Amino acid sequence: MTDQSALRDEGSTRAWRELRAEVLEDAGHRCAYCGDPATHVDHRTPRSAGGTDSRRNLAASCARCNLGKGTGSRSRLKRGLRAALRP
Question: Would you identify the CATH topology of the domain 6-85?
Answer without folding.
Answer: DNA Binding (I), subunit A (1.10.30)
